[in-house]
Amino acid sequence: MTVNAYAAPAGDRPFEPLQIDRRAVGPRDVQIEIAYCGVCHSDLHTARGEWGHTHYPCVPGHEIVGKVSAVGGDVAKFTVGQTVGVGCLVDSCGHCSSCNEGLENYCENGWTGTYDGKTDDAPGYTMGGYSARIVVNERFVLSISHPEEQLAAVAPLLCAGITTYSPLRNWGAGPGKKVGIVGIGGLGHMGVKLAHAMGAHTVAFTSTAAKRQDALDLGADEVVVSRDADEMAAHTGTFDLIIDSVAASHDLDAYTALLKRDGTLVMLGVPEHPHPSPNVGSLIFGRKAIAGSLIGGLPETQEMLDFCAEKGIVSDVEMIQIQQIDEAYDRMLKSDVRYRFVIDSASLAEA
What we know:
- 23% of the residues lie in helices and 26% in strands.
- The chain is of the alpha/beta class and 351 residues long.
- The strands form four sheets. Strands 3, 4, 5, 8, 9, 16 and 17 form a seven-stranded mixed β-sheet that branches. Strands 12-11-10-13-14-15 form a six-stranded parallel β-sheet, with helices on one face. A two-stranded antiparallel ribbon has the order 1-2.
- The two termini are 18 Å apart.
């Protein structure tokens, strides 16, 4: 079937309308009419060819919320009319140890991204949520129980939400723990909300004092301006966990110094060039760790969505029409968004 989409025809050209084909609904498939799609920095990097090897035309989008419009004959979990979501992946091998543990995001044979991933469907690579409809295997479809009026703000949970929830959950954020969130952007603002909701004493780190009140409003118990040496020093050796959402290269020693013995600094962003080499002595003498974390598997993503629905948590979003996507990308590069753009997919009908 042919559906409306918006695509980057090349890395140096603006987006334009495109008709794309979606596969017929198979026995295990769910067809979704997309209502909203969040805009992620990964979309920008891929569409503009900054990570290399992008297939064009490129239809990004992996923060998808919509309604089920058809299901395959073997689908038992979903029904027509149900509100559902699709995140960053739409397939994995299904049989490696990671997949068997519900950690498809660490599939040892390579998972398939929601866009620009290898697939048997035409044209040979996946096309994502900047489109009117998508067909996805039921294993990679998620149930959404937030109220209708919050659905646009739910979309970024499918990437920004799970990317921060997973390390908070894995490293035991909760009552009695002191947790730091570095960077108050698309990822960081969700980290603050989630850490606070989990009951941790939550400290937000920002490079600018202008975001201090914003961070407090998001739920931070304290805010530290990272460029203020005295504010940083006051927290030396006190954190159980620090989640670093900053993708730019920076000094990690400033944060490992703030960890308790056995504390962990978890990195979420891949910088444009390597971070300066950390002081290994600080790690050795405090039994501290620097770790990484990548989105989450399907069971954990469903758990995150249910937790957010229970706690009333959504992303802070700015709605755009699909025709504004190039402007949105330019604004993202300037950090001119509080804190995620979301596409109103109804605008595709006018494209």
